Amino acid sequence: MERHRKHSVGGTTLHTCHPCRRAIPYRIYAVIHTCGIIALMYHHVHSLLTSNNTLITCLLLLSDIVLAFMWATTTSLRLNPVHRTEYPEKYAAKPEDFPKLDVFICTADPYKEPPMMVVNTALSVMAYEYPSDKISVYVSDDGGSSLTLFALVEAAKFSKHWLPFCKKNNIQDRSPEVYFSSKSNSQSDEAENLKMMYKDMKSRVEHVVESGKVETAFITCDQFRGVFDLWTDKFTRHDHPTIIQVLQNSETDMDTTKKYMPNLIYVSREKSKVSPHHFKAGALNTLLRVSGVMTNAPIILTLDCDMYSNDPATPVHKPINAQDVLALAHKVAGCIYEHNTNWGSKIGYRYGSLVEDYYTGYRLHCEGWRTVFCSPKRAAFCGDAPKSLIDVVSQQKRWAIGLLEVAFSRYSPITYGVKSMGLLMGLGYCQYACWPFWSLPHVVYGFLPQLALLYGVSVFPKSSDPWFWLYIVLFLGAYAQDLLDFVLEGGTYRGWWNDQRMWSIRGFSSHLFGFIEFTLQTLNLSTHGFNVTSKANDDEEQSKRYEKEMFEFGPSSTMFLPMTTTAIVNLLAFVWGLYGLFAWGEGLVLELMLASFAVVNCLPIYEAMVLRKDNGKLPKRICFVAVILTFVLIVSGYFFLK
Ligand SMILES: O=c1ccn([C@@H]2O[C@H](COP(=O)(O)OP(=O)(O)O[C@H]3O[C@H](CO)[C@@H](O)[C@H](O)[C@H]3O)[C@@H](O)[C@H]2O)c(=O)[nH]1
Ligand SMILES: [Mn+2]
User: Fold this and answer.
1) Nearest ligand to the C-alpha of residue 530?
2) According to its record, how does it sit in the membrane (predicted)?
3) What is the distance between the alpha carbons of residues 362 and 421, in angstroms, rounded to a whole number?
4) pLDDT(300) > 80
5) CA-to-CA distance for 211 and 209, rounded, in angstroms?
6) What's the gap in Å between 384 CA and the centre of ligand 2?
């Protein structure tokens, strides 16, 4: 095995790769765990042939097959863990020889993605420690919103002050929102002055967003007055012509210190109800073509509007105002441009999955592209994660559906992937594609042994049975390795605990509902789109609870039902099982252990059901329906357990 690999460009090593020491113990453990799984399967088959309750045995067998398969996919990712170190300081090219850089920023909804957030993302990359005239920032607005355009016009004005300020003072946080709300910001007159300007811009933008309309009186740049007229009465977000507006031109626009500025270009591609627009993948493909016509940089960087550059040092001509260039740009941003072309199948971002990032990366890997994972000490980008549980589970449900779209496509990692990339890489990709499959073992293990416990029926080996220990070893082994992996990569114990708790919650919500929706869609019974995650965050009470690490259930959602029901069922089983253990001595130990583990995991749910009074508590309606469901489950348990 090649112990240390170097990767050089023109004789300079830019990054090195070191295998982790845990690889060998991991491989040894993989062999042991595999033997355990084989033994367990033997045990199941044996019970299937001898037992009288085939339904229970089948359900347990099916769940264990899924668990074993998922364990195999995880293990393929753990066989050769590596770390990389990168040496950007060794990149010796002179600034005038730096390549040109096109940055793509996507946004889709001015209410879920506040325009000020887009502004901050754009400003943070425009302020890169990189020759300004070589950067072009393209903002794709799938919401087709004049509010977003208005915010960007304001951003272009503000950047004339912000960029020289950042470069002169060597500011690290180049997103103004982050800079002005951090404690380290300077108190100099210049900084105070800029802060005033920023606040002023922010209040203007927020005012316009709130009013929902860009009044002519608010437009301060005469140059851009005309473009707002394109938002006619017939204009809707699903049906409108292409709008491309150069807001800042690197050849003519200078900042306050007479230095040229990066290009800033607003693009809202044409939309029509009859043409599929392929969500974010479609937006990015449009940007690939528009930028190809306008600036055509050899390097592109794509960002979502909920991300910003966290390190200014992270990153080669056509006159872009020329009539013919803009006409061509409009043409390539049109709805029908992609008809009968290879866009989305062989060129650009691939269509067919709601997780276009995973899918495109995977397809490129299959075609033989090579990638490296860079993870510098100071994170190069920061992003926004949803804070309330409903947003989290909805986001993950979208991912679940997108992943299933890949898993069941003709490019499924299990068939096509394994064939093109080999067994280990193919299995590694399955880990993600098969994510939603986790819901099956979660549901079976979350209800079946507990109901059995309530009826005094054993589904697992008794503690006197040697097979008992196999269950203990497999469970502890899998969890311990997961914990070890988490902690060795810099996570905390508490972080891991929360992580595995979220994993269970997803199994009972996003994965389960994603599966159902995907099935309905396959049967043509429903359709769904890209449900953009809400990034708006102005509820102070909610932020406080977030800081205290409290779950935010908030608005009622059917997705909370299964987890609430399982919480109740496990609590009942736990109490009943404990009572049994003391009353009769011999109890159903494994069933009881499982229920107690679930109860500990469900503590925040009990708290949200009965103790909490704030707005983040579990809605009464959900609790009520969950109690009824519990009752129904227990009654129906009587028929297949007794
Ligand atoms: O029709 C659409 C829908 C979404 N977006 C943009 O896509 C980005 C991601 O959307 P978001 O709601 O933030 O989804 P997340 O789940 O946070 O995004 C993750 O998952 C997506 C796939 O589901 C990936 O595209 C993202 O890169 C990845 O960060 C945002 O900038 C949106 O504006 C569009 O441009 N057009
Ligand atoms: Mn996002």
Assistant:
1) 1
2) Multi-pass membrane protein
3) 10
4) yes
5) 5
6) 6
CA 342 to chain CA mean position, Å? 27
Confidence at residue 315, expressed as pLDDT on a 0 to 100 scale? 61
Cβ(274)–Cβ(336) below 8 Å: no
Pocket, ligand 1, Cβ cutoff 6 A: 106-108, 113, 140, 142, 279-280, 283, 304-306, 354-357, 395, 398-399, 402, 530, 532-533
Q: Does residue 142 carry a catalytic annotation?
A: yes
Residue nearest to atom 34 of ligand 1 (CA): 280
Structure tokens that stand for 521 in this block: 């869609």
pLDDT at 331 over 60: yes
Nearest-CA neighbor of 263 among 174, 116, 156? 156
Q: Quick check: 607 pLDDT over 50?
A: yes
109 catalytic residue (yes or no): no
CA–CA separation, 202 and 222 (whole Å): 20
- Spatial separation of the C-alpha atoms in residues 565 and 560, rounded to whole Å: 9
Q: Average of pLDDT values for 308-315?
A: 82
For residue 398, give the ligand 1 atom closest to its CA: 23
109 is in an annotated binding site: no
Q: Which atom of ligand 1 is nearest to the CA of 395?
A: 16
Measuring CA to CA, how many Å separate 426 from each of 29, 250, 478, 597, 619? Answer: 21, 44, 21, 33, 42
| Ligand 1 atom nearest 305 alpha carbon | 31
User: What does the alpha-carbon distance between residue 440 and residue 185 come to, in Å, rounded to a whole number?
Assistant: 50
Tell me which of 113, 287, 304, 533 to substitute to probe ligand 1's pocket, judged by most ligand atoms within 8 Å of the beta carbon: 304
What pLDDT, on the 0 to 100 scale, is given for residue 164? 95
Question: CA–CA separation, 539 vs 554, rounded Å?
Answer: 12
Q: Atom 22, ligand 1: which residue's CA is nearest?
A: 355
Does residue 107 have a pLDDT over 80?
A: yes
**Which tens digit of pLDDT belongs to each residue from 478-487?**
999 999 999 9
Mutate to test the pocket of ligand 1, among 109, 266, 280 (most ligand atoms within 8 A of CB): 280
pLDDT digits (tens, 9 = 90+) for 415-424: 999 999 999 9
Report the separation in Å between the CA atom of 276 and the middle of ligand 2, taken as the mean of its atom positions.
22
The first and second tokens of residue 611, run together, are: 């103790």
Per-residue pLDDT averaged across 317-321, rounded? 58
Tell me the one-letter amino acid at 615.
N
112 marked as part of a ligand binding site:
yes
Structure tokens at 176: 């103004």
- pLDDT at 318 > cutoff 60: no
pLDDT score at 160? 95
Q: Give the span between the Cα atoms of 87 and 8, in whole angstroms.
A: 11
Instruction: Say whether pLDDT at 613 is over 60.
Output: yes
Comparing CA positions, the residue from 9, 95, 12, 7 lying closest to residue 313 is 95
Distance 385 CA to ligand 2 centre (A): 7
Q: How many CA atoms lie within 13 A of 554 on its CB side?
A: 17
Interface confidence (ipTM) of the complex: 0.98
Ligand at minimal distance from the CA of 405 is 1
Cβ proximity of 529 and 398 under 8 Å: no
Residue 369 has pLDDT above 70, yes or no: yes
Catalytic position from the list 102, 142, 306, 391:
142
What band does 316 get if pLDDT is binned at 50, 70 and 90? very low
Of all ligands present, the nearest one to the C-alpha of 510 is 1
Q: What is the DSSP string of 460-474?
A: S--TTSTHHHHHHHH
304 is in an annotated binding site: yes
Q: Cβ of 636: how many Cβ atoms within 10 Å? A: 11
Tens digit of pLDDT for each residue in 544-587?
A: 999 998 999 988 999 999 999 999 999 999 999 999 888 876 77
| Confidence (pLDDT) at 91 | 82
For ligand 1, atom 25, which residue shows the shortest CA distance?
357
